[in-house]
Amino acid sequence: MTEFRNFIAGSWSEGASQSPNINPSDTRDVIGTAARASRAEAEAAVEAAHAAAPLWAASTPQQRFDVLDRIGTEILERREELGRLLSREEGKILAEGSGEVMRAGQIFKFFAGEALRQTGDVLASVRPGVTVDVRREPVGVVALITPWNFPIAIPAWKIAPALAYGNTVVLKPAELVPGSAHALAEIISRSGLPAGAFNLVGGKGSDIGPVLTSHPKVKAVSFTGSVPTGRGIARACAENLKKVQLEMGGKNPMVVLDDADLDIAVAASLNGAFFSTGQRCTASSRLIVTEGIHDRFVARMTEALKKLVVGDALDPATQIGPVVDERQLAQDLDYVDIARGEGGKVAFGGERLNREKPGFYMAPALITETTPGMRINREEVFGPVASVIRVKDYDEALAVANDCEFGLSSGICTTSLKYASDFKAKAQAGMVMVNLPTAGVDYHVPFGGTKGSSFGPREQGRYAAEFYTTVKTAYTQP
Ligand SMILES: NC(=O)C1=CN([C@@H]2O[C@H](COP(=O)(O)OP(=O)(O)OC[C@H]3O[C@@H](n4cnc5c(N)ncnc54)[C@H](OP(=O)(O)O)[C@@H]3O)[C@@H](O)[C@H]2O)C=CC1
Ligand SMILES: O=C(O)CCC(=O)C(=O)O
To answer: Where is the signal peptide (predicted)?
Structure first.
């Protein structure tokens, strides 16, 4: 049985107890056992990161480049193998699993380059003979708390900038997906990073999370996950005066206008709403469609859904893998019932499916005849469930798209430059997509949302420096 262990101060440990890592495509398949760290071990990980901080902060850009580049190279070389492990433990299909691994490798390569490109400013002082320089320094120990839906890419896009800018790390991955985090930690352990600069602690977030968010030696916390957990982390960080960065939910709109190319609109909506089993914070869960194209759009979406193959994530023929676990499946099915109860019509899917292997399979659900005020259009489902809202015209579509507590990603399908330009300016979201799915982003540009979706500086791209560095202003009179 494979053991997914903790990694603290350069040593591997079994944890205080273990939990099984179950394949959601086949619940008889136990992938391994995962270490659950005790609170004392979580504290030891913080102490190790604190002890390693001065050494790694003093590393040269070349040393940081070499470490991150090596990590990226090994991830890319092992793309298929790691992708398979990821698909086996999370349930996304093989192409998505290896695609995510590739993204993780590219992120490490990108931040290897950023380590070399760190900049500062030199300014003339307002006082004669004085110069001012503004430089970026590491924050110190950062705690990274990550969800199950991107088991390697999200850890990568937090760890890589943290290390590139000279910080040391304690990673707490989601308990549902310990294998990918363990594989990443093994790769990092061979990269030449000093012992203690990267630490991995497994276990339940509600148990060891508070150790990380309240420990005085943790200077910053970066979190991706649910809104209630994120808000709790923000409160703990405020209490302890830590920097905090939160990426949380979405209820992302995809607007389809009468003038849209129907093929593009259907392809983008299908991908955005249902790929990765809809388990993306950027998923297009609200399809806002103008009345001239509405019926044709719904008919084409329904046809396309009928053809989607739902099944074992490890079967190359599968297009939609299982839901991640029983609890998430129950939530997804509940929302289909809620939508039905609110007057929505289930145009396709929405039921649990039986397959040869016991797993958490669900037929992707398309719900029509919904209105903006319904719960199905206001609350994040986080599964293969999308609803259609019929609107009169572009102005109403924009108003409905923005009438939401979240603001992560917002899409529009149109052939009109006028509407596309207006939407890019007025969509209340951190990311706007024209004729593209709301989900599936580049790795080298900022990622994050507005309103209730995100809090704190952006992740990814060079904007990540805002969170992972602190600015020092130095005045010199020769
Ligand atoms: N925005 C996004 O990308 C995601 C959103 N979600 C949303 O959240 C819902 C529930 O999913 P769930 O996995 O429970 O999400 P959570 O927000 O609970 O989990 C995200 C991470 O936070 C950890 N965590 C949980 N409680 C605490 C705490 N008190 N302090 C510190 N860390 C903590 C979790 O640990 P552990 O799980 O190991 O206990 C996990 O590593 C989903 O249905 C979906 O709506 C979920 C995943 C990603
Ligand atoms: O859509 C993407 O590419 C990223 C989505 C994401 O980060 C998430 O769901 O947590």
So the answer is: none
